[in-house]
Every structure is written in structure tokens, then in C-alpha cells.
Amino acid sequence: MKFWLLLTSLLCSPLTALAKDTLVILSPHRKSIQEEYVPLFTEYYKKTFKTDVQVEWLDQGGTSDDVRFMRAKFGSNPKTSGVDIFWGGGTATFSELQQDNFLASYKLPAALKAQIPEKAAGISLYDKSQTWYASAMSSFGVFFNKKIMKLDGLSEPKTFQDLGKPEYRDSISLTDPRRSGSANTMNIIIIQTLGWEKGWELLTAIAGNTRSFTHSSSDPIKAVVAGDVAMAMAIDFYALAKIGDLGPSNLGFVLPQGQTVLDPDPIAILKGAPNRKVAERFVDFVLSVDGQKLLLLPKGAEGGPVKSSLGRMAANTKAYELTEGKRIDAYNPFKQQSLVKLELGQAVKMQRVFNDLIGALLIDTHEDLKKAWTKVSKGQKAVDPAKLAALGKAPLTEAEFNALVDKWDDELVRNNTIKTWVTFAKQKYAAAK
Predict the structure, then answer these.
(1) Residue 22: helix, strand or coil by DSSP?
(2) What's the predicted TM-score (pTM) here?
(3) Secondary structure tally for the chain: helices H, strands E
(4) Within 13 A of 384's CA, how many CA atoms are on the CB side?
(5) Fewest CB atoms within 10 Å of the CB: 74, 193, 256, 302?
(6) Which segments of 90-225 are extended strands (E)?
């Protein structure tokens, strides 16, 4: 009898108020996103739903690593990964996740859905099956240190093509696209806007000017801020966040004319999410006006981030209305005409083999490339077109590349082909030297 009295007392005691809801998020987003959104969400959750929520934030190192993690999780249990939310990585990543049948459908509340248009500048902000929604939008350009460029006598870049100029040799830092979804997207932009042959020429020239390839998308940004390099290709929010904190007199960012792409950065609930209701509430919060204002406002502004500026484009139109004249960047994607649109299906299909080709030609043979590039570009204002064509030649045509994509799951084919590409690269760089 005493046991049951004790049990009843415990169940009815104030200790039950300490019971927490749980949410597990997998995200490649940088730490500043986590530091701003998690505390505000837990505060909002307690106030709105009268209970605490415990948020577990997982990050495997980058977008590609997170996707591999998901595949491993669902591979061991097809019904659930044990994770509730996948957040960040661009639409190409979410198309992959959708094709793998990892995403769950979710219909937003009507009032919130009214604030998220179907499109911005011709770009879809959510999937028709409502498995993912744009939590923000991103574009890609060139981030540069104005003081270092002035000190080195370098002209400010205006396009991606500028990054191939000999004057920028050893002044650039880039990320290995095999570890970064944003780096992959920027390379695809160059190929799709310039075409296969000219695209590879430019990618080769930029790699020749690159001091190093990093594993993290944030490392080139840090290098530019520290003055270790003058510039980097960058996703807009990395650049704008630093400009918001350190000022436009020190740092600059330019969207390349004719190559400006708007890429939604989605959020989705995963299939078999163990905390489905909490996951729905988190999606609603991220897309709400309060959640979206964190992206637009500078650090310290009312309703803005507390620790650091995030410098992102929002997906909620009302958030733009309420932050007019207060944002880090006045740019409003909902007031733009149609921009460059990536062939997303092709981009997703080609991603693995394309990144392996980039790795073989530009990264794993980078020292050979740099020596060859120095030989053909030193003392030149522009590289001879014939020499650039030879240096930037790909080992296969675009048609041959597309045919190879379907065979890439065969590890024997993949490994042997990569070895062939590395040999090809070393031979052409040796010939240039």
C-alpha cells in the first residue's frame, strides 16, 4: 500500500512539470544559426505550449556528410532514422533526400502558408508534395577583403570570370566540393552558364589561382576576414554576416552579373520522425515572422540575432515588410525579375560524378596544376586562349560524362575512372610545364 501511495505522490508532484519534449535536428548550418534559433525556439516553446523542449543538434561535418549519415541511418532501419528534422543544404540536396524517400509531407497552417509565396524571382520556394519548404534563400558570389586587395594592388572582382585572371594567383581560397554542397553549386553554376568547355577552362584557371582547398565552407571566409587571402567564392550569408559584423569599409561581396542564382535553403521533416508534433512546431517557428527576422536584421537590433548577424534572405514576405530600412542588405528577392535558374534535376544527377571529376582534375592534383598555371600565366594580364584551352581540357565530353553518371554506383568503374582522370590531369599539367 505504501508503495502505491509513494508512486501516486511522485506522478502527481511538480517534478512532472520538468518533463521535456524532444527534437533532433540534423543540419550542416554553421554554429551561429544554432546559437540564435535554438534558444529562441525553446523560449517560444515554453511560452506557447507550457512545457520545455530539449533540442539535440547533430552535424556530421558538411552537407554531403549529413546525407551519407542519413543513408546509413535509413539503411539500418528503413522506417526511421531517429532524427526529426533535416535543415539546410540547398534544393539539390533535398531533391536527393526526396528521391531516397527520406522526407515526410507536412502542410503548413493556412495563415503561415499565405506568407510563403510559391515562387521568388521564378524560383520555387516549396516542393509541390510539401515535403520541404524554403527556410531561407541563398545566392552565390565573390567575397573579398578590401584592405588586402588595396594593399596588393588588386582590382575588385565583379564576375566569376574575373577570378581566372592571372593577377589573382595565390589570392583565392576555395572549399572542396566533395565536402560542401555550396561549393558544388557554385561549380555547377559556372558549367551551366558558360557551357562544358569554357566552364572547365574557368574552373581550372580559378583552381590555379587558389592557394588551398579546405574541408569546410567557412574556412575560406575566415581566411578572407583574417587577410590570409584576398577573396573567395562564397554563399551570400557567410559574406553578409561578416560584413554586418565588421563593416562594408573592410569587406565586400558581389553577385556576378549574368550568373546570379537564387537557391532556396530548405527545411523538412524526416520520414518516421520520432517527435513528429515537435518537428511540425519547429518548422512553423522557423518560417514565422519572428523566425525569419533573425535572418534579415543585424546583431543587436530589436527582434534580430543576439550573438552574430546571420545575413540571409528570408522566405517570408511579411518579414520583409516589417524590416524595411532595418536590414543588413536592402536586397529583396521578391522584388527581382527572373534570375538564372539551375537545371536542378541534372545538377542532382551529376553531383557525385561531377565532384569526383573536380577532385581528380583540380584538387588531388592541385600542386601539379599550380605549377602549370604559374608557367602559362606568370607575367601575363590574360592567358593565351590556346594554352588555357589545353590546360582546362576535360578528359571526356559532356555527352560522355552524362552517360557515365548512370554507372557511378559501380565502385570498380568509379575507382578505375578516377585513376584514369588523375593520370590524364598529371600528364596535361606536365606538358604545360
Answers:
(1) strand
(2) 0.73
(3) 18, 13
(4) 10
(5) 302
(6) 103-104, 119-120, 123-124, 133-138, 140-145, 172-175, 210-214
Which of 391, 355, 357 shows the shortest CA–CA distance to 371? 391
How many Cα atoms are found within 13 Å in the side-chain-facing hemisphere of 287? Answer: 30
Separation between Cα atoms, residue 285 and residue 133, nearest integer Å:
12
15, pLDDT greater than 60: no
- Of 331, 355, 380, the one marking the end of a domain is 331
Give 298-305's long-range contacts (Cβ < 8 A, gap of 24+): 298/244, 298/327, 298/328, 299/244, 299/245, 301/326, 305/32, 305/36
Containing domain of residue 272, as a range? Answer: 7-138+262-331
Question: Are residues 219 and 282 located together in one domain of the fold?
Answer: no
At 380, the amino acid letter reads: Q
Please tell me whether residues 19 and 127 are part of one structural domain. Answer: yes
* Distance in angstroms (rounded) separating the CA atoms of residues 152 and 168: 10
Query: Do 15 and 118 fall within a single domain?
Result: yes
Give yes or no: residues 35 and 112 share one domain. Answer: yes
255 & 266 share domain? no
**Each residue's pLDDT tens digit, 280-307:** 999 999 999 999 999 999 899 999 999 9
| Span 246-262, pLDDT tens digits | 888 999 999 887 788 88
Number of domains the chain is built from: 2
SS3 of residue 196 by DSSP? helix
Interatomic CA distance for residues 368 and 426, integer angstroms: 7
Quick: pLDDT tens for 137-183.
988 999 999 999 999 999 999 999 999 999 999 999 999 999 887 89
| DSSP codes of every residue in 266-327 | EEEEETT-TTHHHHHHHHHHHHSHHHHHHHHSPTTSTTS-SSS----B-S-HHHHHHTTTTS
User: Residue 192 in 3-state DSSP?
Assistant: helix
